Amino acid sequence: MKQILWSTSIIFALASTVVGSSDTDGDSHLRGLRNPITNPTDDVSLGTFRMLSELVEKEEELENDETYMPPQVKETPKHTPVSKSESASAKAGLQFPVGRIGRYLRQGKYATRMGAGAPVYLAAVLEYLCAEILELAGNAARDNKKSRIVPRHITLAVKNDEELNKLLGGVTIASGGVLPNIHAVLLPKKSAK
């Protein structure tokens, strides 16, 4: 209802400023014009007066109608939310940095051209190998009743796994030690009774 009354007052204010008022002394340039609201004499003033009175009647009918709902004004956000850029690792669902691996591949001059999927594939392979080694090293740490993985556990994990031992056969892990192994010949002989 406040919106209806507000719009009615706006219409009257616009009509009086467009046509002018003969009563005010400050508006000397509008002195000869008639106000259609107070003095509807000529055809234009009568038409404007009828139109405004019809608008007022319609607004009064709407005001008395109990089912009438005034139009809701949608509040537009001050700024549209910008979607955050997603990293290549997040797009691929990986933890290893796809962009950094791609940069290393480009800087290493391994090839003159490189496909877009090459760093993603390499990151996925490296992540899988690390997860496999960490799982086996965690098992070795748990077997030794330790809660922290140390290089010794990684060495035991790699040396006890056939495929990883073949892959990392020429790799030396610092502070890793060796597998516990004593040749059978060196063991003391059992005495027969």
Q: In words, what does this structure look like?
A:
Helices cover about 50% and strands about 0% of the residues. It has 7 helices and no strands. Helix 1 (about 1-20) runs antiparallel to helix 2 and helix 5 crosses helix 6.
Short description:
By secondary structure, the chain is an all-alpha fold. The chain has helices at 2-19, 43-64, 88-92, 98-107, 118-143, 151-160, 162-167. The relative contact order is 0.06.
Attribute tags:
193 residues, mainly alpha, Histone, subunit A, 2 domains
Number of helices: 7
What is the CATH C-level name of the largest domain?
A: Mainly Alpha
C-alpha-based Rg, rounded: 44 Å
Strand content: under 5%
Span between termini: 115 Å
Structural shape: elongated
Sketch the topology as an H/E string, one letter per element: HHHHHHH
Low-confidence stretches: none
Q: Which sheet architecture does the biggest sheet show?
A: none
Give the structural class: mainly alpha
Counting DSSP E segments of at least 2 residues, the number of strands comes to 0
| Proportion of helical residues | 40-55%
CATH fold naming of the largest domain: Histone, subunit A
CATH architecture of the largest domain: Orthogonal Bundle
The CATH superfamily title of the largest domain = Histone, subunit A
Q: Overall pLDDT, averaged?
A: 81
Protein name: Histone H2A
Subcellular location: Chromosome; Nucleus
Region (Disordered): 60-89
Subunit structure: The nucleosome is a histone octamer containing two molecules each of H2A, H2B, H3 and H4 assembled in one H3-H4 heterotetramer and two H2A-H2B heterodimers. The octamer wraps approximately 147 bp of DNA.
